[in-house]
Amino acid sequence: MNILFLTIVKIDSVSDRGIYTDLLRKFRDEGHNVFAVSPAERRYKKPTSLINDDGVKSLKVKTLNFQKTNLIEKGIGTILVEYQFKRAIKKYLNNIKFDLVLYSTPPITFTNVVKFIKKKDSAKSYLLLKDIFPQNAADLGMIKPKGLLFSFFKKKEKEIYSVSDYIGCMSPANKAYLQKQNPEISSDKIEICPNSIEIANVQPNKNNTFIREKFEIPTDERTVFIYGGNLGKPQGIDFLIEILKSNNHKSDRFFVIAGSGTEYFKIEQAFKTNQFSNAKLIPNLPKNEYDQLVQTSDVGLIFLDPRFTIPNYPSRLLSYLEYKMPIIAATDAVSDIGQIAEKNQYGFFAHNGDLQQFNQQMEKFISDKSQISTMGENGYQFLTENYTVDKSYQIIMHHFEKKQ
After folding, report:
1. Which of 24, 49, 204, 397 is found 20 to 30 A from 197 (Cα to Cα)?
2. Topology of the domain covering 209-386
3. CATH number belonging to domain 2-196+388-401
4. How far apart are CA 373 and CA 4, in angstroms?
5. Rounded distance between C-alpha atoms, residue 275 and residue 397, angstroms
6. CA distance 105 to 160
7. What is the C-alpha to C-alpha distance for residues 133 and 26, in angstroms, rounded to an integer?
8. What is the pTM of this model?
9. Same CATH fold, 209-386 and 2-196+388-401?
């Protein structure tokens, strides 16, 4: 098939590891012709271009900035992106007849692009639902829940669901929420298609002293807890700072915080103010270095703001499981990432904001370190059975193979 993939995530190379690039390579390796459309943000000062990227045709479209920019530019950029993508597709890919158009949220403003491809080529459309906007922004107080902006984007959200032939949700709770809030969507087109990766054939090295020394992480018997990824408002970073404060000077544990985002400065200030003796803050790292850092850690941490009323499912879970690490998920009450971890015995759940509960879950790993390896193996097994690109590919292709 000819497959068109739309995303506002920057794709440097399809060879890079990530939930989207891994899936694109899977489609490529199965013999499909894959075309990926992604932004070339204006900060890079590059024109729109079409290149052959390791067997995938990559159309990089000049857009406004989406990442690490002010809300005004991000908002305008999100509204303009469907026009910019559609114009670029018409110019560079108009002679291709697509069979399937894949796209993810964010954003919810791809409707006209998808409609254009469906009408032109009679293509099927598949939405990979990665967030539920604008409700997530309203939960965090970023927009008013009954304001004009919310109403505008709510209309856009309904449109993207309507134009989608199939919608893949990240988890059971994510699917149930979508069905409850949008009863007009036929249940036949909603299914679970979770975040997934191509598993690297790498054995984690917990005793890699070179990496630990490079990042000034203790090489003794302390239990190392790592949080890696986006440090933004969705993560409820204030709770992470509370955890660091309450555990400061405890010599049997160590915290590694690695990432970037809008709240990075807040954590950086907390480190300066509190002089944490058992924690290390590391700015955003290249993927290969981050993976090495994760491999040398013991327990992975996941945070979600407690105000969320939508069930999120952070993809950073996958790298933890891949390197045989158990997790502690400190989230809102509606996400099922912690419950799934506990049910399958690869981690524990705590409510984001409940410091006593979180510290109790953490003590379980510190007092009985055998749980780290046991639950880490459980998580890796769960990953191989549920969260691989092979599984995602089968879920998506099932809709086409059954008609042949």
Report:
1. 49
2. Rossmann fold (3.40.50)
3. 3.40.50.2000
4. 41
5. 52
6. 9
7. 28
8. 0.91
9. yes
